[in-house]
Write a structure and sequence with these properties.
The chain has 137 residues and is α+β, with helices and mostly antiparallel strands. It has a single domain (11-130), classed as 2,3-Dihydroxybiphenyl 1,2-Dioxygenase, domain 1. It is built from 3 helices and 9 strands; from the N terminus they run βαβββαβαββββ. Strands 5, 6, 7, 8 and 9 form a 5-stranded mixed β-sheet that branches. The longest helix has 11 residues, at 19-29.
């Protein structure tokens, strides 16, 4: 019997303008945790964050060329880029709003759960998604 190795998307790169401003936004406002911060030479860093409890890491990759700089905040042509799932939508929605995260819409109920679109500091769009039936208060 052949065993198929387990695979997962471990890390997603997000092009950023500045390492430290991106790190501050994702840790201080969104509530992510620092996973790795290693110098790579030439001013580059392997800077990764993730939601508490693990999951896919977000590599904060500083733009190094004019072409990369042009993509900051628009890696997907204005579509929602990433989906942050939570076990408590209203807790995380309130905490993120209180810390200055900009939501582009009021929360809404969908078949897959409670959802609201928010922007990171560069304008990349994310969905915050909570479980189905996750009602406020």
């Amino acid at each position: 019997m052949t065993t198929v190795p387990a695979r997962r998307i471990a890390t997603v790169a997000l092009v950023v303008r500045d390492y430290d401003e991106a790190l501050a936004f994702y840790c201080d406002r969104v509530g992510f945790e620092l996973v790795a911060d290693r110098p790579m030479g030439g001013g580059k860093r392997w800077l990764a964050v993730a939601p508490p409890g693990g999951g896919t890491h977000l590599l904060l990759a500083k733009a190094a060329t004019p072409e990369q700089s042009a993509r900051i905040g628009d890696q997907t042509g204005g579509r929602v880029f990433l989906f942050l799932e939570t076990d408590d939508f209203w807790r995380d929605h309130a905490a993120m709003k209180e810390k200055g995260v900009r939501f582009l819409e009021a929360p809404r109920e969908e078949d897959y759960g409670t959802v609201a679109v928010w922007e990171d500091l560069y304008g990349n769009r994310w969905d915050l998604i909570g479980p189905c039936g996750d009602k406020a208060g």
